[in-house]
Design brief:
Elements: E1 2-5, E2 19-22, E3 32-42, H1 44-52, E4 66-73, E5 85-88, E6 101-105, E7 109-111, H2 118-122, H3 125-138, E8 148-152, H4 157-169, E9 173-177, H5 181-190, E10 194-196, H6 202-206, E11 212-217, H7 221-231, E12 232-240, E13 258-261, H8 266-269, H9 277-290, E14 298-301, H10 307-318, E15 325-329
Parallel strand pairs: 8-9, 8-11, 9-10, 11-12, 12-13, 14-15
Antiparallel strand pairs: 1-2, 3-4, 3-6, 3-15, 4-5, 5-7
Length: 333
């Protein structure tokens, strides 16, 4: 089968950073589905793994968002049948979506939405799970209260779906941040109640301190912490998903702020008792898409799934100038 992989951690402008390769087609067993991949999207985690995690042997295939057709099921599979169209965000510890065929545990996949194209659907699984788990499993937001949430770096993949989920499923006021005019307009289209610039003083733009119930930081958390501590209410909830090089938790003490870290792969990595919750979340959001409540966060379509196009996608993500998600479709040359 065709795939894209690497043998050495290299900068994305190096010719060998990602390569077109041929691998053996895997077989399904146990609770695994063998999926014929139709479309994928690229996430910041792809660039981090490519740059920092070396293969144990041979080539490493990455990628953690896909839509595809179930070609084969393991002997313990009960949720799907051959021929089903599924979507999922995969497992960090297994071979990724940048391949014609992939094995995925049925507990972290669901039937894909049918009202959008496979490329539009592929933009959503990983970011949807991250956003949903942050909101409802980590922060445990009060869906009925007239409170507020500040989403820092909201124009990217996770923020784009988080804004929509908050607007559809809670009564929270959504304050989103963005620094470019196109990103500001994007967030307004998605339903943000207010958009401010995270490169300027957020407390000054909001006009007061101690005014936000929940804060979610999606990137550059270390840079934003002083302003976060100004605007968050005493006994507020603070969540993050990135990897700050340093993080002084003592800053949270004066206001008794609760800290929540969201890592979408935790359930699959540790096969937690509630691992199948990801199946349920994706199924719920697929229904929301098909009913028109949530729209795709596809930003750019980069063409076929090959090394050249994936390198372009990685480069754009590393520039931190992407808006929405980058999607690739099919394994044509």
């Amino acid at each position: 089968m065709k795939a894209v992989g690497y043998q050495v951690n290299l900068p994305i402008d190096n010719e060998a950073s990602l390569q077109d390769i041929t691998l053996d087609k895997p077989n399904a067993a146990g609770r695994d589905l063998l999926v014929k991949v139709q479309a994928i999207s690229v996430n910041p985690v792809d660039t981090k793994i490519r740059a920092n995690v070396a293969p144990e042997s041979g080539y490493k295939v990455i990628g953690w968002d896909a839509v595809g057709i179930v070609e084969e099921v393991g002997d313990q599979v009960s949720l799907f049948n051959v021929g089903d169209l599924v979507w999922y965000a995969g497992d960090l510890t297994r071979s990724g979506t940048n391949a014609e065929f992939q094995l995925v545990d049925e507990r972290i996949a669901s039937l894909a939405p049918t009202s959008v194209s496979v490329s539009q659907a592929a933009a959503l699984p990983l970011t949807t799970l991250t956003a949903w788990e942050m909101l409802f499993d980590r922060l445990k937001v009060n869906t009925e209260a007239n409170q507020s949430i500040l989403i820092i770096g909201a124009a990217g993949g996770v923020g784009s779906i988080m804004v929509q989920l908050v607007k559809k499923l809670t009564n929270l006021k959504v304050i989103a941040t963005a620094s470019r005019p196109a990103s500001v307009e994007w967030l307004k289209q998605l339903g943000a109640d207010q958009v401010i610039d995270h490169n300027q003083s957020m407390s000054e733009q909001l006009g007061m301190n101690d005014c936000v119930d929940y804060v979610v930081s999606l990137n550059n958390t270390e840079q934003h912490m002083p302003e976060v501590m100004k605007v968050i209410k005493p006994q507020g909830q603070f969540g993050l998903i990135d990897d700050p090089s340093s993080f002084d938790i003592r800053a949270l003490k004066p206001k008794s702020v609760s800290l929540h870290w969201e890592f979408m792969y935790t359930r699959s990595m540790f096969e937690t008792d509630d691992m199948q919750k990801q199946h349920e979340i994706l199924a719920k959001v697929a229904t929301m898409i098909d009913s028109g409540e949530v729209k795709t966060t596809l930003g750019e379509h980069f063409g076929a799934i090959n090394a050249t196009n994936l390198k372009r996608a990685h480069a754009l993500l590393e520039s931190q100038k992407a808006r929405g998600k980058i999607v690739l479709e099919g394994f044509n040359d």
